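Much of our argument rests on the idea that a fold can be written as discrete symbols. The amino acid sequence and the backbone structure tokens for this protein are reproduced below:

___
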Amino acid sequence: MLAILTLFVAILTVFSLANNIQIVFTHVYYVPIIIAAYWFNRKGVLYAVLLSAFYLGAVYTLGLHDMPVILAAVARIVVFIGISLVIAILSITLHRQQERITQSEERFRGIWESIQAGIILVDAKTHAIIAANPEAQRMTGFSEKEMNGHLCHKFICPAEEGKCPISDLGLKVHRAERVLLSRDGNNVPVLKTVTEVQIGTEKYYIENFIDITPLKEAENTLLAYLREATLRVRNPVELVRDNLIEIQDELKGRDTTPAYIATAIAIQEKNIDDILHNLQEIERAVAEKRTEIPDALREYLKR
């Protein structure tokens, strides 16, 4: 396109100067000069210099060699080159800004797609879902296309419409344990934070949540194991306590024999051995790293 414009300008210049037309045709020069400076920047300025040199040579060759005419041509050349410089500078600045914006978008997209936390952008006024990152899609089971435009109430959030903890109840949600509704109807336990941001004149909620299902499972396993360990130790301890109370009562009555006391103590010794055995079983399980023992309990028992 630029080559065609250059050829057209050259033909128009020769034709106009040959017919003693000095000014009108020069306005056409601005079109290829501006295009070249915008497209090619520094090379576009060189193009303007070469085109200006052609114009000056054509004026000198085909003109009347009149000094005012030549000076007017030089003034136009200065304008041509000046405009080319301004356009080139603006073009370079614009391209750099576009590159920075592109790089910023790429960085944001990389974080958005790779972060190991679900993020959903919600319109604060309508509560419609605007965007969801891949982790949020994985946790909910919905694609971003399926979520976009859908109200968050009873879709991914268990709150009823009109009872939003943020906009309706005025609560702050920061690293709070909540549940996320999934496609298969399960409640996914999450650690949730909601932040309100304003973009332009619109307000949005940025909801980010971390899946704590493994933590909850470990917590439940830990509680179950602690209950079992407690029962395995408590029952023999209670038995020893009751027997000791019985021995104490008998000693107060002074109706016991040394043989009886020895037998009773031997029984309590056996019960205490059972308690120690149960404790050793727990220690042995920790040493063997049995999978049924949660890591949290194992680390505690190693202290």
Notes: The chain has a mean pLDDT of 82. The two ends are 80 Å apart (CA to CA). The chain has three domains: 2-111, 118-211, 215-301. The longest strand covers residues 187-199.
